């Protein structure tokens, strides 16, 4: 009977945790429901969880075709996140390859220095970064955003940990076949790293998509904004219309939510990777 | 080895072949592969830290151009420790740390243990608690700002329904603004803490629990005598990460309150932003940046020492 008793207690815990998880997600439920409502119904109490009258088309149009160039901002976010993800992966994979599979003097010194830099918070170097970007003539461009996020010691470190586990025999074999360092890198190392690269790519994409600080500092033109900074435009233009605000939030969150639900294993493992090894 | 090779490649000029030995070639390729990362690090860390150290000893308003940089000695630093908004920011950072580190860690630990082996559909729970973490904190903050609306918001309407005639004004009241922000960011970050704990839990052998059960240990004893002690390294990691993270808080404050009302929710990073990018006092902002760097470095050094002593 202990088996049955155990399962019953497990069922009870599941039900309680289920209730808690619903409570935890109330802000999201409220957001979705409000995005479908008329402005005047959003703050009505008791809350109409399923709206009686629906105004979703109007709200949708106000967000996507209204004063705020949201479609444009959306495209900016996709563009910047894709480029940042690709370049970060390239830079970090190359560095990790050098740190693990190429032997030369000074290698370990550079690695130690990189690890030491990890403690410098981005926020402490905002002023000189800003000056640097202005002097390079990159202020108010997407290149500035990309340049600021394309170097990641953290990812270099994760990829290095993974590559340490790749046997040197692969590289010896490639050498015997006459492959140079570049060929070995592109056709042996990168394919072998595919699982960890996929994980790292998703996480970088999420971080870039949600980045608020860099666009705030390095952009000025509204047409160049990415989504999180774009949210401030809605805040300023629709202070009182919560239905439109909630539609904007929903639109900002949904694409990542879909990506996350499809790739949940990779995302969760990727986050855990940093935690366990860090 | 060189001598053993027959001179098949004599067409190549002697000198070049001698210089580009495989070892040298490997070193060259090694540096080439590292080059982008090194350039980035030199510009964004080494140069940046040096330049901000220099600026922190100057008085410079960005609008006056490069020629407006004037040496000011320790003036910025002296001013900093007399500046009430800096002291307020430091105090707020400390309060924010107390609110957002220990409590969420404790809640996440309990939830992680429950999710780990006490429920069905484990994956569902992992996903649910993680959703706020992957969502844009700004979009999430926009939702909470409506929920927390002082007179019309659902939170306060609910509280008034319960008979609380004077519910807190949340984000717009200096007394509760910081707490409100702490609630929102703890809620948003809980999923991360749970995931890290779950990863730690998978490393604990189930045999330990089975042995304890044979000895008649209750669930509570198992939790405090096995789970908590064995998760110490994970807890330690979370503590450091979240401690440092709490001193770097900026996005949510910038979007929701801009440090207000009446500086009640201002923090160090927001002060850097305000002085540097609103008032253009680059010298003073650099001095505050160094204060932030010193705090983070001190936390890191202290934790390293603690780790060594363990």
Automatic annotation (TrEMBL), chain A:
Q: Does the keyword Transmembrane helix apply?
A: yes
Q: Which residues cross the membrane?
A: 12-33, 73-97, 109-131, 143-163, 184-207, 243-263
The main location is: membrane
* Source species, domain of life: Bacteria
Q: Which InterPro entries match?
A: MetI-like, MetI-like_sf
The protein's UniProt keywords, in alphabetical order, are: Cell membrane, Membrane, Transmembrane, Transmembrane helix, Transport
Residues annotated as signal peptide: none
**Bilayer disposition of the protein:** Multi-pass membrane protein
The subcellular location is:
Cell membrane
- Family annotation (Pfam families): BPD_transp_1
Which residue numbers delimit the ABC transmembrane type-1 domain?
Answer: 74-263
Cross-referenced PANTHER family: ABC TRANSPORTER PERMEASE PROTEIN MG189-RELATED (PTHR43744:SF12), ABC TRANSPORTER PERMEASE PROTEIN MG189-RELATED-RELATED (PTHR43744)
Q: Which family does it belong to?
A: Belongs to the binding-protein-dependent transport system permease family.
Q: Can you name this protein?
A: ABC transporter permease
Q: What is the lineage of its organism?
A: Bacteria, Bacillati, Bacillota, Bacilli, Bacillales
UniProtKB/TrEMBL annotation, chain B:
- The lineage's top-level taxon is Bacteria
Keywords, sorted A to Z: Cell membrane, Membrane, Transmembrane, Transmembrane helix, Transport
Principal localization?
membrane
Q: Where does this polypeptide localize?
A: Cell membrane
Location of the ABC transmembrane type-1 domain: 90-301
Membrane spanning residue stretches: 27-55, 94-115, 127-147, 178-199, 235-256, 284-304
**How does the protein's chain sit in the membrane according to the entry?**
Multi-pass membrane protein
Q: PROSITE patterns attached here?
A: ABC_TM1
Q: Which InterPro entries match?
A: ABC_transporter_permease, MetI-like, MetI-like_sf
The family note in this entry says: Belongs to the binding-protein-dependent transport system permease family.
Protein name, UniProt field: ABC transporter permease
């Amino acid at each position: 009977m202990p088996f049955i008793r155990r399962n019953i207690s497990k069922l009870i815990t599941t039900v309680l945790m289920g209730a808690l998880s619903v409570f935890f997600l109330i802000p999201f439920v409220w957001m979705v429901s409000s995005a479908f409502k008329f402005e005047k119904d959003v703050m009505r109490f008791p809350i109409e969880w399923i709206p009686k009258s629906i105004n979703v088309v109007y709200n949708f149009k106000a967000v996507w075709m209204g004063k705020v160039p949201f479609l444009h901002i959306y495209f900016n976010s996709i563009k910047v996140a894709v480029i940042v993800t690709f370049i970060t992966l390239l830079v970090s994979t190359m560095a990790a390859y050098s740190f693990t599979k190429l032997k030369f003097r000074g290698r370990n010194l550079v690695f130690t220095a990189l690890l030491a830099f990890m403690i410098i918070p981005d926020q402490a170097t905002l002023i000189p970064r800003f000056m640097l970007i202005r002097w390079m003539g990159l202020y108010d461009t997407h290149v500035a955003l990309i340049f600021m996020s394309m170097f990641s010691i953290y990812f270099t470190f994760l990829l290095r940990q993974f590559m340490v586990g790749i046997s040197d025999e692969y590289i010896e074999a490639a050498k015997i076949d006459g492959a140079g360092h570049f060929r070995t890198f592109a056709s042996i190392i990168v394919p072998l790293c595919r699982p960890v690269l996929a994980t790292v790519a998703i996480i970088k994409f999420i971080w870039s998509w949600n980045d608020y600080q860099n666009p705030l500092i390095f952009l000025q033109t509204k047409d160049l904004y990415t989504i999180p900074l774009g949210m401030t435009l809605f805040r300023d233009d629709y202070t009182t219309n919560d239905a439109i605000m909630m539609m904007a939030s929903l639109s900002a969150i949904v694409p990542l939510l879909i990506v996350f639900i499809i790739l949940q294993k990779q995302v969760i493992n990727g986050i855990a990777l940093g935690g366990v090894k860090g | 080895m060189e001598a053993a090779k027959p001179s098949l490649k004599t067409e190549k000029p002697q000198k070049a072949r001698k210089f580009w030995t495989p070892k040298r070639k490997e070193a060259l390729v090694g540096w080439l592969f590292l080059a982008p990362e090194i350039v980035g690090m030199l510009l964004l860390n080494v140069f940046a830290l040096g330049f901000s150290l220099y600026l922190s000893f100057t008085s410079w308003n960005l609008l006056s151009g490069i020629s407006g940089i004037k040496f000011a000695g320790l003036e910025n630093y002296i001013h900093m420790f007399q500046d009430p908004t800096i002291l307020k920011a430091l105090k707020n950072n400390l309060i924010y740390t107390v609110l957002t580190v220990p409590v969420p860690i404790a809640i996440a630990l309990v939830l992680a243990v429950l999710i780990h082996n006490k429920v069905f559909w484990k994956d569902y729970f992992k996903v649910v608690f993680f959703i706020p973490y992957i969502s844009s904190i700004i979009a999430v903050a926009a939702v909470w700002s409506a929920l927390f609306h002082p007179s019309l918001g659902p939170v306060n309407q609910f509280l008034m329904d319960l008979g609380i005639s004077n519910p807190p004004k949340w984000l717009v009241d200096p007394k509760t603004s910081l707490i409100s922000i702490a609630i929102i960011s703890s809620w948003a970050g809980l999923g991360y803490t749970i995931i890290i704990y779950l990863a730690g839990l998978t490393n604990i052998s189930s045999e330990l629990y089975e042995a304890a059960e044979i000895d008649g240990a209750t669930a509570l004893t198992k939790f405090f005598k096995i789970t908590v002690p064995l998760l110490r390294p994970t807890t330690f990691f979370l503590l450091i990460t979240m401690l440092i993270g709490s001193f770097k808080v900026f996005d949510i404050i910038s979007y929701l309150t801009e440090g207000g009302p009446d500086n009640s929710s201002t923090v160090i990073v927001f002060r850097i932003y305000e002085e540097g990018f609103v008032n253009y006092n680059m010298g003073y902002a650099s001095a505050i940046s160094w204060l932030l760097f010193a705090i983070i470095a001190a936390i890191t050094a202290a934790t390293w020492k603690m780790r060594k002593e363990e």
